[in-house]
Amino acid sequence: MSEAKKEETPYQEGAEIHPDVPVAITKPIEPPKTEIPQLPKCVKCGREAKSWEGEETKEGFTCNRCIKIKCHTCGKEYSKASGVYEGFQCKACQEKEHLERLRLNAVADFTFENAILLEKILKAVEEIQDEPLIEIKNDGILIRVMDPSRVAMLDYFISKRAFHEYRVHTEGFLLVDLEGVLKQIRHLRKDTLIKALVDGKDGKFTITLVDARERQRTFLMLEVEKLEVPPAPKLNLTARVKVIASDFYSDLEDMGSAGDTVSFEADHKNFIIKTAGELATAKNQYSTEEGVILEVEGNGDNRAVYSLSYLKALIRKDLSDTIVFEWSKDMPLRITHENVLEKGSRIVAYMAPRIEVED
Predict the structure, then answer these.
(1) What is the DSSP letter of 13?
(2) What is the model's pLDDT at position 1?
(3) Beta-ladder partners of 244
(4) Beta strand pairing status for 193-199 and 140-146?
(5) What pLDDT shows up at residue 343?
(6) Where in the chain is the domain with CATH 3.70.10.10?
(7) How far apart are CA 309 and CA 257, in angstroms?
(8) DSSP assignment, residue 128?
(9) Which of 10, 166, 295, 314 could cysteine-pair with 242, CB 3.0–4.6 Å?
(10) H helices present in the chain, as ranges
(11) Range list for CATH 3.10.150.10 in the chain
């Protein structure tokens, strides 16, 4: 009878070894060796890089310390290792531009006796542009701004003769959050006057409301990053109509239920406005005999179409009893509020036409 085959038992550390039991001795498995890649040397400075921070070029690896990036303003080179990036501006140029922007700021003080009227003017401006660039000049204050869609433009100029006191120490600009300023001009009375101090050196704008008490509010001036005052339009307009502001505004509100645009046409006797929507049309015809319009001039060939919502925003019936409209065929509309301020001042707005394209 053949001898029974003996099975081999793997050796376990700490176990007793029996002489009759064969044991297989196994070696521990070693992990595979992985080669750690050596960090490259910079082809320019010869230093061995501490990390893979750099760029691979045709010549070889270049570390960030040897990569130079120019300031987009002055052209001075800085090492990429300092944290700069393409298109950056160095601190020296940033500080220089900051000082230049401060030099743009005006230094002036003035007193306006009718605070309620000034509030109405500022509200009209804020409805078109909430951060208007206000130019303070020796002869008065200019606010010429466009709305973001560039459909409407205001051209307001308050002559220094409209102020009780007006002193300009440095001509320049005032840029503020007008919405925030108007929130503080509240609870005005007929006898409330407003004093203003524009301190461009410290970047502060202070207003003081004076009546039975004094209320002082100070605001930080915003930095003038882009100096952009649109030029005043030069237009040769052939049609002209003077209207009673409140009556005409009411008629425009009524027409708004029929359409969102309104057309203007005028001859030497009549002024006609029309609107048309999907479900309704409307037409108003005026003559100087009815009282809504006071004057009319035109040759009949001057039809132009305008946005009804913008038109209502630009008509400030709380500023003036009478308003003059001037236009030509498919040309901008000029809106002049009469007798708001002293002579030499103007409260004028412009609006681009809506050009109708025929199919």
Answers:
(1) T
(2) 47
(3) 322
(4) unpaired
(5) 84
(6) 239-351
(7) 12
(8) H
(9) 295
(10) 91-104, 115-128, 178-184, 245-255, 308-314
(11) 104-220
Q: Report how far residue 245's alpha carbon sits from residue 293's, in angstroms, rounded to the nearest whole number.
A: 9
Q: How many CB atoms lie under 10 A from the CB of residue 119?
A: 19
Any idea of the CA torsion for 178, 183, 188, 193, to the nearest 10 degrees? -40
Instruction: Write the CB contacts of 245 (distance below 8 Å, at least 6 apart in sequence).
Output: 315, 316, 317, 320, 321, 322, 323, 337
Token representation of residue 180? 């925030």
Q: Any bridge partners for residue 218, and if so which?
A: 206
Q: How far is CA 52 from the centre of its chain?
A: 42
CATH number attached to the domain at 239-351:
3.70.10.10
CA distance 71 to 94: 10
pLDDT, residue 2, reads: 46
Closest residue by Cα to residue 126 from 337, 316, 306: 316
Residue with token string 């009759």: 20
Q: How far apart are CA 72 and CA 208, in angstroms?
A: 43
What helix, strand, coil percent values describe the chain, rounded to 5?
Answer: 15, 35, 45
pTM: 0.72
Contact (CB, 8 A) for 118 and 169: no
- The C-alpha atoms of residue 327 and residue 333 are separated, in whole angstroms, by 5
CATH 3.10.150.10 fits 104-220, yes or no: yes
CA-to-CA distance for 283 and 303, rounded, in angstroms?
Answer: 14
Q: Are strands 9-10 and 23-24 parallel, antiparallel or unpaired?
A: parallel
- Calpha distance 143→162 (Å, rounded): 15
pLDDT along the chain (359 residues), means of 10: 51 56 60 67 79 78 86 87 84 70 82 96 96 94 95 97 95 94 94 96 95 96 83 93 96 93 95 93 92 93 96 95 96 96 93 78
Q: Are 255 and 282 in contact (CB under 8 A)?
A: yes
H or E, element range at 54: strand 54-56
Tokens at residue 174, please? 């005032």
What pLDDT is attached to residue 86?
85
Which is it for the CA torsion 89, 91, 92, 94, positive or negative? positive
Backbone angles phi, psi at 160, to 5 degrees: -65, -20
